[in-house]
Structure formats: C-alpha cells, structure tokens
Amino acid sequence: MDWGTELWDQFEVLERHTQWGLDLLDRYVKFVKERTEVEQAYAKQLRNLVKKYLPKRPAKDDPESKFSQHQSFVQILQEVNDFAGQRELVAENLSVRVCLELAKYSQEMKQERKMHFQEGRRAQQQLESGFKQLENSKRKFERDCREAEKAAQTAERLDQDINATKADVEKAKQQAHLRSHMAEESKNEYAAQLQRFNRDQAHFYFSQMPQIFDKLQDMDERRATHLGAGYGLLSEAELQVVPIIAKCLEGMQVAADAVDAKHDSQVLIELHKSGFARPGDVEFEDFSQPMNRAPSDSSLGTPSDGRPELRGPGRSRAKRWPFSKKNKPRPPPLSPLGGPLPSAMPNGPPSPRSGLDPLAILSEISKSVKPRLASFRSLRGSRGTVVTEDFSHLPPEQQRKRLQHQLEERNRELQKEVDQREALKKMKDVYEKTPQMGDPASLEPRITETLNNIERLKLDVQKYEAWLAEAESRVLSNRGNSLGRHVRPPDPPASAPPDGSSNNNASQDNKESSEEPPSEESQDTPIYTEFDEDFEEEPASPIGHCVAIYHFEGSSEGTISMAEGEDLSLMEEDKGDGWTRVRRKQGGEGYVPTSYLRVTLN
C-alpha cells in the first residue's frame, strides 16, 4: 500500500503529516541538545566537587596521604572525576552524533519536502490552467452556438418577410452561415480542449501525483527510520560508557575495601614516633627533712652514716623526662641547684651544703622540678621552631627518617651525576676519535660542572651519613633507656626487667652506677638516695615464647640476631615502639622487631 494509490486525494493531509514529522524530528534534536547541556553541567559540577575536596598539597608533602583511608578517599575522588569524564563523553557523543547529524538531516528533509510539494503544486496549477482553458472554450462554443442559432433565425425571418430586400436577406444568410461556421470551430476547439484536459487530468491523478506522493512517502519513511536510529543513539551513547562507569564503581568499591585500620595505626606510629625514652618517675622531694634539723646543720638530710639521702645524678638523669634541646651535646651532670657537679667542675664552687642555707637549697630543688612538669608541653611543638638542616628540631625517630630520606635522595642524585659523567666521557672519546662529530673541548665545561656536582653530593652524603649515624645511635639509646629501665606504675608488675649482661647500654650504665661505691664527690651531692632499693633490677622469667617468622641480623646496638623459625623466650612485650625483648636458648638477650615474631603469652 502506498500513498499515491490510497491517498491520491489527500494532498493537504500529506502536507500536514510530513510537516508534523519534521517538527517531531526538530523537537527530538532540541531535547537531545538540552540533555547534552544537562550532562555537561552535571560533569562540570562533579569536577568542581572533586577539585574542591582533592588535597591541595602534593602527596609527597602531605603526611595524611600515607593513611589508607585518605588514599581511598582520593581514589574515590579520582573515580568520580573519571565518572564525570564519561558523562562529558556521553554529552559529546549526543552532541555530535545526534544533534548535529539529525539537525543536518532535518534541513535536508525540509528541502526535499519543499521540492516535492512545489512539484505537486505546479502539477495542480497546470491542471487548473487546463481546466480554465476548457471552461473558456466551452463558454465560447456555447456563445457561438447561441449566436449562430440567433443569426439563422434572423435570416429565416427576413427570408419570409416580403418587405425585406434581397440584399438584406443575403446579408442575413451570410451572417447566419458565418455564425454557424464559428460555432463549428468553437465546437472543434472545445472538443480538442476537453480531450487535452482529460488526458492531463488522467496523467495528474494516475501518474504525476501518485509519483509525488510516493516520493513523499519514501521521504517520510526515511525520516522516521533516521529518527528511530537517533533514538537508538541516545541509549547507545549510554551503553558505550557503561563498562567504564562500571570500572569506576568497582574502583570505588576497591577503595572502600582498601581501608586498613591496622595499617593506618602503624602509619601514625611511623609518622609521629619521636624515639624519646619514656620519662622516669618524679622523685619524692622530702621537704620535712630540713625542717627537723638544727639550723646549724649544713647538710640536707644526711643520715648518720654520712651518705646523702638524695639520689645521685646518674639515676635522676636517667629517669628525667627526655624532651629537651635535641641534637645538643650532653651537659655535665647537674646538681639540684641547676649547676654542674663538683666532679664536672674541678675549679667550680664548693658543695651546696657547705655554703647555702637549707631553705635556699629546697627552693632551688623545687625550681629544678618545674622543667620536668612543663616538658610535656614540648610534645606539641611550637610555632617558632627553627628548621635546621640536620632536622635536629624533630624528635629522634622523625629526624632519623628525614635524614634517611635525604640521604636516599642525595644518593640518587649522585648516581645520576655519575652516569652523566660517564656519558660525557664516552661522548668526549667519540669526539676525539671522530672530530667531525663535535669538538671535545666543548664538553669540558659540562664535565667540570658534573665533577663539581659529584664532589658536592659526596660531601652531602658524608654529612647526612654522619648525621644519620648519630640519630640512629640516639634512637637506639633512647629505645634502650625506655625499654630497659623499670618504670614503676601504680601497681608494680609481677617481675622486673632482667639484670643480665645482654640488656641495653642504658641499663648497663644504671647497673654499673649502682654497683660502684659512692665516691666522695657523689656523697657531697644533695640528692635523695633512700628510694634506691625500689629501682634495683632483678632477673625476670620469660612471660611467653615466640617463633621468629623472618631472619634478623641484629647488627644494631642493643639488638640480637635470630634465624627464621627459631624458638625464643619472650622477656618483655612491645611497649609501642615496635621492639620486643627476647632471650635465645643458646644464651643472649636483646631486642628484635615485633613484626618479625609470632608471640604466644604464658
């Protein structure tokens, strides 16, 4: 079924229908255009949102970037950004493949439709023109017939009239004959015109207009097909990005699963672990002793045997809160008055008890306690901290990590300069063997510059290595002091740390100082010693056993080596710094990394 056969008389209907189809095509193009604008605005808002929440600082300068939860959040932002990119791709595909193509096709359809209807209207005008000519010839034939009949009647009336002259009769007959001849010609012309009009009309209704209608039908069907394809492009543009969007969603899920609370806790330890030893107990200051003595007494709390009741400088310093000026030479042992001990100052002032009033001594002792109480505030740092090249403004552990990082960077730069020097030497050899390739002398400035850089970097490496060695020794010393020293909690533990020879250096120093007899100078020092018995360390029994998961060399001071799979006795649990004290079956005791062990407590 076609329009030319079934709708031969529905010219206006077809004109309205084809115009409606083109309007629908234009409406769809406008819809897709607005949909594209929505997608672009959505993608832009997503990108602005991602930009708003992305970290402003580079990852290498942002400590928070090391946490898994922060990394997952950044990954989610990146996936959202990729998702926004896919929305932009959808908008681009819709704009190019739908809006532009369908708009162009709509213009072509409008031109084709206009051409077909112009052709149909011309055919209608031709048919109407033929019909007018037919009507004109018909009216002329009718008029000529009436005039011929009238002329014949006039001639016949004059012929019967006896009063009419012969000339009048002849003239009337000639007029009647002429009118009759004109009527005959009009008749022939009318018949010819009628035959021609019937032929044109048959051609118009059976050939010309059906062809035009069929062309319009083909045009409309092509338009509908193209519009349906445009409908399909809308979903096709979405389907093209579905795999990538699915990957974005999978990436978000992977980022969510990548959050590791244990890892973040370990990262926090690595970032902010200071490496300082834990503070010792605040010593008891017995202010009642001087009040019960006679004013003539010149010593503070000296028992009958002559030994001072205050603690010696070695012990008091070992239990003092460690935060002070970092990377500074150790000052000589201080007395409670804040000055050096007589042993540290050969020509210094005499013992405090020989020339000062006991109340003044107590005042100085109370002042010496204040830095220990206020030192905890140094944990938070200050805004006015001066950044030094050796990072001495940082805690020992952080200083060691920063120095290690700087040393690795210097080594990489040094290796790069060495490789560049070797390349320049090879290029110079090539220039010397083949002068036409270049002048060897032109490479001398670059070689000299490279050598200078190498020397400078070697000096930097040596400097950082020395600083790193000093920082590592300080970290191990603080770790030994922290782990080897017995810190008395409110409820004492069941066993004290062992007093074996394999303990760390700080413990050895404390033991040696406790075993040596007090010298004359130390007896003169007004430091309480009546609590010494509380700090005597006794050998401890294992609190569990552990198995070495990995091999450990134990080359650092205070550590012990172990083989993979070796059974060890657990002497002391990890105190939060990542080290555990163990004892080997063959003998020997020291610290190993906690992560290298599988621990079972008794």
TrEMBL record:
Sequence segments annotated as region (Disordered): 281-358, 479-525
InterPro entries noted in UniProt: AH/BAR_dom_sf (IPR027267), F_BAR_dom (IPR031160), FCH_dom (IPR001060), HR1_CIP4_FNBP1L (IPR057871), HR1_rho-bd (IPR011072), HR1_TOCA (IPR057870), SH3-like_dom_sf (IPR036028), SH3_domain (IPR001452)
Residue stretches of biased makeup (Polar residues): 289-302
Record bears the keyword GTP-binding: no
SMART domains, A to Z: FCH, SH3
Transmembrane segments: none
Domain REM-1: 393-470
Residue intervals of the SH3 domain: 541-602
Signal peptide: none
Occurrences of domain F-BAR (ranges): 1-264
Keyword Ion transport: no
Compositional bias per record (Low complexity), positions renumbered to this chain: 497-507
Coiled coil residues, start to end: 124-175, 397-474
Record's keyword terms, sorted: Cell membrane, Coiled coil, Cytoplasm, Cytoskeleton, Endocytosis, Lipid-binding, Lysosome, Membrane, SH3 domain
Biased composition (Basic residues): 314-329
Cellular compartment(s): Cell membrane; Cytoplasm, Cell cortex; Cytoplasm, Cytoskeleton; Lysosome
Family (UniProt): Belongs to the FNBP1 family.
PANTHER family found in the cross-reference section: CDC42-INTERACTING PROTEIN 4, FCH AND DOUBLE SH3 DOMAINS PROTEIN
Name of this chain's protein: Cdc42-interacting protein 4 isoform X1
Gene behind the chain: LOC101402839
